Request: fold
Amino acid sequence: MADAIRDRVLRFQGSAGSSEPFESLALDVFAHQHGANPAYRAWCDGAGVAPVTVTTVAAIPAVPVAAFKELEFVCGTPAAEFRTSGTTGTGRGRHFLPDLEPYRAGALAHFARCLLPEGWKLRTLVLAPPPELRPHSSLSRMLGWVLEAHGESGSGWFVGASGLERDRLAEALLDAQRGSVPVLIAATSAALGAFLDYCDATGLRVALPGGSRLMDTGGQKGARLAAPLPAEAFQAALYRRVAGTLGIPPERCVNEYGMTELCSQAYDRVLAGTPQGTLDVPRIKLPPPWLAVSVVDPVTLEPVPAGASGLLRFVDLANVGSVAAVLTEDFGRLGQDGFILEGRPRASEARGCGLTFEELQAVVAAP
Amino acid sequence: MMPVRGYWLPPGVEPPPGRFATLGALTIETPEVTPALALSTVFGAASGRGAIAAMSTDAIIRALDAAVAAWIAPDSEPRRLAEEAYVEAAGVPRVTVPFVPLLEACASPHLKDWVRAEVSPVAALDGFVAGPDGAMVRALGPRLAVHVLPGNVPLVWLPTLLACLVMRTPCLLKPAREDPLTAALFAATVAAKSPELGAALAVLPWTGGDERVEAEVLRGAGALIAYGDDPAIVSLARRLPAGVPFVAHGPRIAVGVVAREAQNPGRFEAVAAAAARDALLYDGRGCLSLSAVFVERGGLMEPGEVVTSIAGAMPVAATALPAGRPDRDTAALTQSWRARIRARMQAGKPSRCAASPRGLDWTVLYDEELPMPAVPLYRTVWIAPFRDYADLTMKTTRTDLAVIHAIAFAGPDARRRELAEVKAGAGLTRLTDFGKLQTPPLAWPHGGASPFRRLLNWTRLESR
Reply:
């Protein structure tokens, strides 16, 4: 049963969602998880939901991300454990997976669609710690796969045991400029911000060749701001700095939305192409075909009217080995072909992969 | 229905063209607030100081008492309108946000008693009089107080406004979006009782963060009084000219403490009912709303029984005080904590979550290990055990937690006194009974000191 449902998910991913209807596969994934995932079954029991009553994707009980701090939602024996970052000491979410292949296959396919739609390989400079330094970081793991699959020679990690390797990164960027080699910078927003600060302090300006692009993730988590900005304003300000400092225009900057509890990611659809061929304002995040997104009212947890804001709720088939339906603490609304991210509740914990750089800096700075 | 003015301007300030907005059955008129209007309003209100300085303190208190009494009257039309606007704008049922208890706290003779208790010699408010050592003294407030009003609970700002007028300080009030009429209608009532006091008041609903308008406001301010931690207020305070007093009523929370002696099975229900009311009155949004209850171990009841008792009282209180419409951030955080505690229950941790079956009408969360949430949740009581007051202090002293400024207590007097001694230096300004938490007396030193102590300037005239 586990292999059969996993294989169906892999086929669905490999066919870009055309192998069978999403809904029937999602319901079968739910039935499988209810049977094979004791923590999820108990969660459903607590909510008074049995598989027989679940006939639509919307009816699949979603596990709030807060519950990942306390329970091990896994089907079978875990082969990998990923942990959320966080700074408040009130616990970290943990995501256990019995098998990484649906995660890897989905991550690579959607990354290629949204970051490398030309089918290119690019020299990839990663501003995040490698998996050896952060074995429980899902972001590090994903970027490792990206490097292996899509990285050209000269690719590498630029956050090491002693933090962000600014001088080495500056040299790599200047080398790309000199050789007219387009690069892909994959960065947590915090690491990117730190490097841009370095550029400002040293006067470094790089004009990266056309075709270069940026993938950033993490938003304001770890950013040293006097007060939080609206998500869109933060992103716009960051991309202005990137354009001015590195020569990558905003239409080649792609923000990633991902979280430890989800194996799938969504990306700004700037490179994947908008229907109008123009930049979305506000930016729309494009999910892969195996990630269904909906929006629920934070008071009732019921679906909101079309176009209204609320909490983002996902059904991620790449989570076939854990729990597919996840309720986030992120606000957003649906947009054409995707969703618009609005941010996190004020006063909620800073968490998410953007902190992996900040955490590392804290460790490095500790006596 | 005739439009209701959501502003109040001092005499001589030309009413600008109004904009009209519909709020439920009401039509509210507000001006377009330009820097020029702000400047003339500031100047106009400040000009009212001479007239109120010439009034006697008794006359001022009589006029203010009359205004408060007019609003307490069962058929008070301005109060009805203000409540209606508040209910519509804040999205809270009327019964949940009663205005009258807050007005009654300010009713005669409380204002007079408060002034006499706070200002000595009280005649110094009227002019130079002999002080304790024989030197002549005079007490006068700032030339103009700018009040940035809160929207979470109506009328919490009223004591400070009354105090300012007694101090002969003209006032410019910026109403909150959730409370668009109360300030303007109350100013009109004051003006009806005393044109001089009315001429020293202004209510101007400018948009927070409009730096051109705020530059004019701050230029004339002799004091800034603000509630909450909105970034716009923080920004406003940063631009306040040096030397101008800033009275900030920042984030504060209220909790309950149940001493072991108060844990009497069969008799605890009254405390539980009072706690539930303290949690849900004003939709649980106020700084005096009960957000947590700490239960001392060693009593006749297990902490879990206290949880059961309070959880049993919450649906009753929620029926009497129905839920409003929380802001989405607080709603999301409350859902998150419900999920976390439910997950902990499932994991076998010492936790409990009792909650309304739908929506966020009420929530009781119990956990023996986790620290209480850093911010109060919506209509939620967090319950945790403690061993002794040292343990309680440890559990409630965190850098990420707002200061606990009020405590509802159940237990014998000696333990109550002991607790007050423990918490007095840690920001506690009030220790009272369950059931009284949300109806503070006028004499309560909100923020740690009365406005008289914070704002009165004493001048000493020494003889040659």
